[in-house]
Amino acid sequence: MNASILLATTARILNQFRHDRRTVVLMVLMPSLLLILLRFVFNSEQAFSRAAPALLAVFPFAIMFIVTSITTLRERTTATLERLMTMPIAKLDLLFGYALAFGLVALVQVLVAVGVSLWWLGLSIGGSVWLLVLIAGLDALLGTALGLFASAFARTEFQAVQFMPLFVMPQVLLCGLFAPREAMTPVLEWLSNVMPLSYAVDALTAVTVSADITGELVRNLAIVAACGLLALVLGAMTLRRRTP
Predict the structure, then answer these.
(1) What is the rounded CA–CA span in Å between residue 109 and residue 107?
(2) Separation CA 26–CA 32 (nearest Å)
(3) For 43-181, where are the alpha helices, taking DSSP H only?
(4) Single pTM value for the model
(5) What percent of the chain shows pLDDT beyond 90?
(6) How far apart (Å, rounded) are the C-alpha atoms in residues 173 and 147?
(7) Inter-CA distances, 43 with 33, 55, 117, 180, Å
(8) Which domain of life does this protein belong to (predicted)?
């Protein structure tokens, strides 16, 4: 990879965000607004603290997936990517440049969501705040990477939205948000064990309960990071020189 090309791609995407404030507001504030809504739905700090770790995984993951997939698809349909691919640019430079740009926005998103949860909504944690931010940030990056990968298979923005039930909803349903994974039927438990969002939820739950950095926590973080990297590599493999 070429660092200068990667950073130039990142700067171009961030410059586009400056002129699309609605998208930036959506990405940065929407998880916090949803957390605020659910805090008052539960109407209990204790109940919210039990559900918040999974929500801090689900909301950034889902929002970054849908925004990234649609934004990248727009780059494809307007032939921006096609023009870039006529230049001597490595595919990974482009994909990692996109991921870095969206990742910086995701980091701001997570910082706002964690800050609102801790200092306004009453979320109590037993571990490090910065470790909580790191895990939630990795999860948002996972959503970004899967969004970049999914955009390769859509031809219209409507199709990109339709991929959300395929890539996002099964993970949300099976990650342990609605029922403990070990209480699911064997088939569903097996499916949850191969879905990266499950490991992000487990890691966030562990951090809110204890300050100990266990081998299981490190393993969960490694799985989330590896799945995000794999999605970016697969996304680079789907880039074509010409847009159909």
Answers:
(1) 5
(2) 10
(3) 45-77, 80-85, 91-119, 129-150, 157-162, 164-167, 169-174
(4) 0.86
(5) 20
(6) 18
(7) 15, 16, 14, 22
(8) Bacteria
